[in-house]
Design brief:
The chain has helices spanning about 5-35, 40-50, 60-85, 100-115, 115-125, 130-140, 145-165. By secondary structure, it is mostly helical. The protein folds into two domains: about 1-85; about 100-165, Arc Repressor Mutant, subunit A, CATH 1.10.10.
Length: about 170
Amino acid sequence: MGADATSSTSTDLAALERLYRSEYERTVRLARLLTNDHHVAEELAQEAFVRVAPRIEAADNPAAYLRTVTVNLCRDHGRRVSTARRHPDPPAAMDHAPPLPRDVEEVWMAVQALTPARRDALVLRYWADLPTAEVARLLDVRPATARSLIRRGLASLQEVLSDVDR
């Protein structure tokens, strides 16, 4: 291995380490919101970093690229889960997350009851604080469709949560 390859590798590793330190927790939280499973979220976040690593120096915005990879991995996971539901295996162990406060649990349950497209749009728009155009790009839909998913998701949440308050 020549001197150029060694310096390139160390630069790649340093860039990856900076990205990991600044984005790991946010990436896990994003994946958790999109998959509803903390353990899966951690695995998908790790996989996203592995996939970003060889291309980190070429990426104009490594954090945005990481987010795109994470969303795509979560969507792939969702498709696999959907297929598994159609062809079920024996029940798996339950996720043992700590209990949420009652008001947070109600909102969380309402968000999880949304269609995957609406949930993903709301998570990307409001949790990840992405503009609608970026939400549309990540979900591979038109901006008008992203706006519609967000608007309908909020309306569904408002309807469900207003029923809870009664």
